[in-house]
Structure formats: structure tokens, C-alpha cells
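On clarity, I found the account of how folds are encoded harder to follow than it need be. For illustration, here is how one protein appears when written out as sequence plus C-alpha cells:

:::
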Amino acid sequence: MTTNFFYAFPPLITGKLIKRYKRFFADIELETGEIITAHCPNTGPMTGVSTSGSLVQVSQSNNPKRKLKYTWETIQVNQTWVGINTALPNKIIKIMLEKRIFFKELGNYQYIYSEVAYGKENKSRIDFLLTSDDPLDKPIYLEVKNTTWTDGEVAVFPDTVTTRGQKHLQDLMNLLPYAQPIMLYFINRSDCTDFAPGDQTDPLYGKLFREAVARGILVLPCRFEVTFEGIRYLGLADYLLYQPSFKLL
């Protein structure tokens, strides 16, 4: 892996987005003029990051069993490359946890578990559970959310109503005070200095976010730079309790 990157892309091919459709498909015109259909590894609405005519980058697979050999990886928005592949944030955060990048915020954990069942009747799954042998150390439940939507220089989550995201906040609050819940927002672009909940799209999520912060849930808004080579960690953004353009009535 490239020294300064937590994830190194395979060789990427540049093209222009024609359209994204049926959530999982994107028609793209490559620089050669060839038109391909690429897999879109992002099931969300992709607000602001799926504009036709934008420069995009795709990776190519040599796996003969794949129906689509191309995967849409990035898009350029106002001269900034934005990550599209939502399978990557958890992979990158796991590497960062293994390298103890968040030691200052998370303390001395020893064990990292992925996709652990928890919550009422174990019907939820946490992205990462961190534990140690010290019985005085609370277990850390860490949920990762990818965000690409912005309000100016503020990264915003969510970009649509998310009942799943609301449930995650509720489940994490239910762990208090016996565990340390953490919401980690993976800001998949480098042009944002702050983070805020998306009150315009999901006011209930914003309300739950502020309640979670008040009750002691730790928020880690992590800034990343996306380039042709890979994805680099830039540090933590500041977080705001309200989306800047959201006006209380």
C-alpha cells in the first residue's frame, strides 16, 4: 500500500458520467469514446455527486464471473474528487483501528471485532466493537457512516430520510452508560472543514444526533482526501449541532 494512503486504488480509468440509474448502474463514456456500464457501489440518493457530464474514474476487474467488469470509484465535484464506493470506508477504518490512529480518542483497546450483533434482541449490528482485557475499560461500539453531501464547506449526513440511521442512534444511546458508543462520519472528500447533521433532509435524525451528543456519544467526523492514487486521512473536522442553512421555526 502506498505510504501516505490507507487505501491504494488499482489503476483507474477516467471518463464522463452519462447517467446513473436503477441505483446499481452507471453509463460512462471513457476517454477513448467507448461507452460502458459500470457497477455503482452506492445505494443512496447520491445528492450532488451524480451529475451527468462530470468527470469520473472507474476500476476494472479481470474476474470473468462478474457481470460488470467496471466499478465506479470517484467523481469530480468543483475540482474535488469524491469517493463513490461505499464498500471502502469500513475497510479503511479497520486499517486505521489496527494502526491505532485514533488512540487519543479511543484509548487502549486490544481487540477489534466487525459486524457484531447488539441492541434489542440482537437485531442490530455494530460496524466495530473494541474491547480490552482491563475490566475497567468500557467496550467501544463504533458505527461508521459515509457522507458525500455538503452544505458549503460543511459535510452533512444524511442526504435523505434514514430510518436505519435513526435506529442506529437510538440503539447506541441504549448502550449508555455501560459502553462507549461512537459515531464516526467518513467524510469522503477533502473540501469540507466541518460536519453537521442533515436537518433539512431528516429533522428527526438531527434531533437524535443532538440528544446523542448531549448524553455522551462520541462523534468523530473524519476528513479524507480522494486522489487518483488512493484515499488519505486528513484529520478530524469540527462538528456543528445544526446544519448551517437550517433555520428553526
Summary: The longest helix spans residues 203-215. The chain is about 15% helix and 40% strand.
